[in-house]
Write a structure and sequence with these properties.
24% of the residues lie in helices and 22% in strands. The chain has 364 residues and is of the alpha/beta class. Bound molecules: flavin-adenine dinucleotide.
């Protein structure tokens, strides 16, 4: 994106080359020249931009789980107000209390009765207009399929830089310090923008859900927006996301200590009985035993289950980088495996046999 500006490329020396790899922050040489009309059209005031605007993704009835942690983080690091923007029908009002309880001070409830579905260009136009009105220092999205599609469209309209798939966010006053794995996960790049708004998508599960402040009040604006409706949904398929490891409360996670491929099926049968999902280390993805979508870690997914049961996992730095579990149980034949040092409970034994016994007990 030509408007991207990574303070002299990737700051802090963690990003090796002159470019911000991996993310949408592409160009190391930035000459402050935006495509004609962009920044000027929105007249963003670089001197006064403040606060953080968060795209609040909903299904019309509930917040997307990935949004809550981002709202909590925005409240923690914002030097000004926390703004939310939500596209929803009248029923969206039912979500106000919850949204305010997570730290939003001002909510823009965007309404158009003709729009029933996610409409990326239309939403992007409306978001750019709201951004123009409030002049936020930063704009955050969850890196969900919706957020990944919408964020670049908004960035293009604002002529702003965008860092995709961040795994850490900090702030120094209005300045947003964004971090994300880069160069195939070999380094953690620190990326800064020196124009406003600074934009980022955040990997789901990165930040814990904030504790809601029940009864907290905020201001809401119900705003109509113009629909361009370039996209029409002709049919819909529901994807079964029972196995979405990002939302799982219990994860049975498999590592290189698993000796038989058939143990993977066994783990799925146990997971079904427990209402859990099955995740893994990169070792099992490399073997072709598990899909990449199940990989936890720096170059995989970030997960935050209540319970993570690790079978034959050593606990490499790269694996643990994606793990934010409440409790960890480690099943490992090596008493001194690194993961055992952070586990709440350690079971020393053979992973395949213990999984087999678990299934037998559950079936009984
Ligand atoms: C750039 C980069 C990015 C990476 N990204 C990721 C990532 O996102 N996610 C990820 O997971 N890895 C990632 N890795 C790989 C990572 O470095 C480790 O190699 C990997 O996590 C090891 O997986 P593991 O714990 O399953 O295997 P190992 O490290 O081989 O550990 C196997 C464990 O099983 C135990 N064991 C052996 N036999 C048994 C048995 N019969 N019963 C019980 N326990 C047994 C052993 O004691 C050991 O602790 C990355 C590496 C690089 C270089």
């Amino acid at each position: 994106m030509s408007g991207c500006n990574c303070s002299g490329s990737c700051s802090s020396g963690s990003c090796s080359s002159g470019s911000c790899s991996g993310g949408s922050c592409s160009s190391g040489s930035y000459d402050n020249t935006l495509p004609p009309g962009m920044l000027a059209a929105y007249n963003l005031d670089q001197e006064t931009a403040d606060g953080i605007l968060v795209y609040i993704e909903t299904d019309g009835k509930a917040l997307h789980p990935a949004v809550k942690g981002i709202l909590g983080k925005a409240k923690e690091i914002s030097s000004g107000r926390v703004f939310g923007i939500m596209f929803a029908g009248v029923s969206g009002k039912m979500l106000y209390d919850e949204i305010f309880s997570y730290g939003v001070d001002t909510l823009y409830h965007m309404r158009n009765s003709a729009v029933k579905e996610f409409q990326p260009p239309t939403f992007a136009d409306a978001m750019a207009d709201v951004s123009h009105r409030i002049g936020p220092a930063s704009i955050l999205f969850a890196a969900t399929p919706q957020g990944r599609e919408l964020a670049p469209l908004v960035a293009a309209r604002l002529g702003a830089g965008l860092t995709a798939d961040c795994t850490e966010l900090e702030a120094e006053g209005r300045k947003l310090i964004m971090r994300r794995p880069a160069l195939g996960g070999n380094i953690l790049a620190t990326i800064e923008c020196d124009t406003f708004p600074q934009m980022a998508t955040v990997r789901p599960g990165t930040f814990p859900d904030p504790i809601p402040e029940i009864g907290r009040k905020g201001t809401s604006f119900s705003r109509p927006y113009k629909a361009t409706m370039e996209k029409r949904i002709v049919s819909k398929d529901t994807v079964d996301d029972d196995d979405d490891i990002g939302n799982a409360r219990i994860l049975i996670s498999l590592g290189n200590g698993i000796r038989n491929r058939s143990t993977v099926d066994l783990a799925h049968r146990i997971a079904k009985k427990l209402g859990a999902s099955v995740s893994c280390t990169r070792a099992l993805v490399d073997k072709g035993w598990m899909p990449y979508s199940a990989q936890v870690g720096q170059s995989g997914r970030t997960v935050s289950p209540d319970l993570y049961i690790a079978f034959g996992i050593s606990g490499s730095v790269q694996h643990m980088a994606g793990l934010r579990a409440e409790r960890i149980v480690s099943v490992n034949k090596d008493r001194n495996a690194p993961i055992n040092a952070v586990a709440d409970k350690v079971i020393v034994g053979d992973a395949d046999s213990i999984l087999r016994s678990m299934l037998e007990s559950l079936e009984e």
